[in-house]
Amino acid sequence: MDSRKCEELYKAIIEGYAEDAEALARQLLDQGMPPLQIIDECMVPAIQEVGRLYEIGDYFLPELMMGAEAMQAALKIIQPALRGEGARREVLGTVVIGTVAGDLHDIGKSIVATMLSANGFDVYDLGVDVSASQFLDKVREVHATILGMSALLPTTMPYMQRVIESAKEAGLRDQLIIMVGGAPVTQAFAEKIGADGYADDAAGAVKVAKNLVAQKAGQQKA
Ligand code: B12
């Protein structure tokens, strides 16, 4: 495997070159690098570095946006390969997922959605800026097993709790598994707001989702 290509993809995202990022992602796939490894080793560290440069004032909003665009261009190439990886045997559950109201960050949420879908879940991705009623309408419509929420801003994290409260008021809470995530979200926060599960990356999200579904099935049998 040519590790220079991974390094080049990392740099292309930091420098905001979307076309290069796309081409490099394709080359890495062609070389046989597993899609999740490309995301975790070449891409996520790059967008994190973009965030760090923005935080210390070296980058401004245009650079932040260019980095995000390069990241998304590469993701577009990787996602079909990621989806193709999981051999679909049975449907493990139905997931409604989205980024909460006021928050436009969707890169991590989309990776989680793709990974869940690759691993046997039927996934309805509602996108970004999703309100409590939009989440709950979809949960009712598709009889969701899992509701997944993502937030990247400290100011939008509290909205997750609001959605959980709304689910209780609507009488939907008990039938649902609620999972939360996003860079500033922690296990402690998840517990505090009464969510059932939390994971700090997409592979973890799949593991937690599978465990919670199995647990719930066990409870229903008992
Ligand atoms: C890319 C980016 C953007 C892009 C987003 C593009 C897009 N389509 O998503 C753009 C340019 C639009 C943007 C805008 C803004 N951003 Co911004 N952004 C980022 C950045 C650099 C990367 C986020 C990202 O994609 N990470 C990579 C993914 C893979 O990681 P992730 O999202 O954490 O997801 C993983 C896990 O958390 C988990 N996960 C995620 N969701 C879920 C859900 C579930 C259910 C589960 C189980 C797991 C899970 O799995 C994922 C995969 O591994 C971060 C920096 C950072 N370090 O996070 C700043 C950051 C989040 N942004 C920040 C800010 C301030 C903003 C703006 C307010 C800037 C402005 N002045 O306008 C706006 C807000 C707009 C809004 N209303 O949302 C700050 C927030 C800090 C704060 N205290 O507020 C950060 C931390 C940057 C910084 N260091 O200052 N941003």
Give your account of this protein's structure.
This protein has 222 residues and is α/β, with parallel strands linked by helices. It folds into two domains: 3-85, Methyltransferase, Methionine Synthase (B12-binding Domains), Chain A, domain 1 (Orthogonal Bundle), CATH 1.10.1240.10; 93-221, Cobalamin-binding domain (Rossmann fold). The chain is 60% helix and 11% strand. It contains nine helices and five strands. A five-stranded parallel β-sheet has the order 2-1-3-4-5, with helices on both faces. Helix 1 (3-15) packs across helix 4, helix 2 (18-30) packs parallel to helix 4 (61-85) and helix 5 (107-118) packs across helix 9 (202-221). The chain is globular. The mean pLDDT is 94. Residues 44, 47-48, 50-51, 54-55, 61, 64-65, 68, 102-109, 111-112, 148-150, 152-154, 179-183, 199-202, 205 line the site of cobalamin (B12).
- Give the count of helical stretches: 9
Name of the CATH architecture of the largest domain:
3-Layer(aba) Sandwich
How many domain modules? Answer: 2
Beta-strand proportion: 5-15%
How much helicity do the residues have?
55-70%
Rg: 18 Å
Q: Name the strands of the widest sheet in spatial order.
A: 2-1-3-4-5
| Strand/helix succession | HHHHEHEHEHEHEH
Detail the poorly predicted runs: none
> Which ions and ligands are bound to the chains?
cobalamin
Please, what is the average pLDDT?
Answer: 94
End-to-end C-alpha gap: 50 Å
Largest sheet: 5 strands, parallel
Q: How many individual β-strands? A: 5
**Shape designation:** globular
| Broad CATH class of the largest domain | Alpha Beta
